[in-house]
Amino acid sequence: MNSRLLSLLTANLFAVILLSLPSFAARPIAGGLDVNRLMSTPQFSSSVQMILGIAVISLVPFFLVSVTSFLRIIIVFALLRTAIGTQQVPPTSVLVGLAIFMTVFIMTPVWKDVTNVAVNPYNQGKLSEMQAFEAGMMPLKKFMLRQTREKDLALFVQFARIKPPTRMEDVPNYIAIPAFMISELKTSFQIGFLLFVPFLIIDLVVANILLSLGMFMLSPVMVSLPFKILLFVLVDGWNLITRGLLMSFR
Q1: How many Å apart are CA 147 and CA 150, to the nearest integer?
Q2: What is the DSSP letter of 31?
Q3: How is the chain split among helix, strand and coil, in percent rounded to 5?
Q4: What are the residues whose beta carbons fall under 8 Å from the beta carbon of 85, sequence distance 6 or more?
Q5: 197: Cβ–Cβ under 8 A, 6 or more apart, which residues?
Q6: Which of 78, 89, 195, 227 has the maximum number of C-beta atoms within 10 A of its C-beta?
Q7: What pLDDT is recorded for position 202?
Q8: What does the DSSP 8-state code read for residue 138?
Q9: Low-confidence ranges of the chain (pLDDT < 70)
Q10: What is the pTM of this model?
């Protein structure tokens, strides 16, 4: 009986809600304002431009990572930490911070060129937004193509099915950026391989010593870690790696 009563009350409540839905429908605003008229107002256009502007700003960090030296630096630092075997030391935030400041140091001449050829003329009203963007991309494109391998650039030119460019200005941005990124990935992994070699030798030597002494239960990683840290400190590893990364962008 109770279940039947509950079902009946639920059905009646649902029917009342359905019948009352039309009363909540939006009514036309006085003056005949419709959707088309709303979209044509300046306030609507300003709101859309603000939303698009916020969306573009949110993509700026990804864009800067893709066209600067940050990509190579952070990958080398991550591979170095893995090679030493210190897990979370240095912390990721420290490595990212160091990579950012090194990126600012390396990219400062490029930013100055962008400011001179694009930002200042745009602020003075000499260039439109699109002209300023194209002019500002030229110093970045010059930097990227100087670090890009011809093989990687030819790969994207081939699949884009365009005429092989003869000048730097003729290389489209959508080809220069991915070609630069895969070149940076290859370069960073090559540097990472060279960093792994001395630490791998230490691991092999320690493992052979422990094996010859019959210490099967002792982890070679725990024993070799202090020696790897000691080697890295004695050769002033951070100075050497930083020097090598800076020289690799010349």
Answers
A1: 10
A2: T
A3: 80, 0, 20
A4: 199, 221, 224, 225, 228
A5: none
A6: 195
A7: 84
A8: H
A9: 1-50, 52-53, 56, 216
A10: 0.71
